[in-house]
Backbone:
């Protein structure tokens, strides 16, 4: 696995991405309009527990990909078993793991969970440990990452050949040790674009004199 340093700074306390001193909205912040109604109706305790679990799963799967020995909490063993099964079934070749990216034209940033080759094709893979997948949100999220990588203004180039197809997947890991690999819907491009436009318009109005 070849992973390169990123010129994008990230503050985990404020979840803020910065490029040369300028704060860029994250992809997840840009597409927040898609999940507002779900978040508002959700139980905050369940939401916080899911967020903590997701953080742990991301950390330990990163250890797995980096061949770092680790002990893990027993409550996430099923998710790690699921990830090991995915690695065994697909044999991905990761070029980047938990890698920050940004685009100066889009003025957007984010973190790729995984980027590399699957079945001989470029692939962006986002790891999820939720009980269900919000297909609209994840399709828009992955479209945002794809746009950052392929649109002019990318300052974190990972594509050796920008003309090549890049497939986008959500990898849903389950507590049972099973997994689901969901290929993002192409409508995610439009969803991300509309969210990006809405975010830009709000910024212009809020900064108007």
Residues:
């Amino acid at each position: 696995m070849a992973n390169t340093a990123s010129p994008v700074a990230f503050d985990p306390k404020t979840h803020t991405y910065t490029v040369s001193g300028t704060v860029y909205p994250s992809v997840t912040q840009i597409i927040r309009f898609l999940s507002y109604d779900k978040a508002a109706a959700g139980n905050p305790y369940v939401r916080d527990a899911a967020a903590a679990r997701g953080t742990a799963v991301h950390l330990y799967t990163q250890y797995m990909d980096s061949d770092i020995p680790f002990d893990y909490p027993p409550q996430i063993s099923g998710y790690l078993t699921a990830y090991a099964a995915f690695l065994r079934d697909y044999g991905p070749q990761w070029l980047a793991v938990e890698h920050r990216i940004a685009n100066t034209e889009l003025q957007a940033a984010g973190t790729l969970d995984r980027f590399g080759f699957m079945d001989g094709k470029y692939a962006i893979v986002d790891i999820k440990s939720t009980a269900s997948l919000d297909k609209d949100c994840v399709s828009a999220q992955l479209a945002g990452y794809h746009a950052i990588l392929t649109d002019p203004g990318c300052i974190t180039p990972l594509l050796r050949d920008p003309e090549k197809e890049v497939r986008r997947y959500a990898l849903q890991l389950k507590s049972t040790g099973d997994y689901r690999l969901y290929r993002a819907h192409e409508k995610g491009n439009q969803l991300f674009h509309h969210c990006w436009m809405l975010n830009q318009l709000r910024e212009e109005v809020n900064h108007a004199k």
Observations:
- Residues 9-206 form one domain.
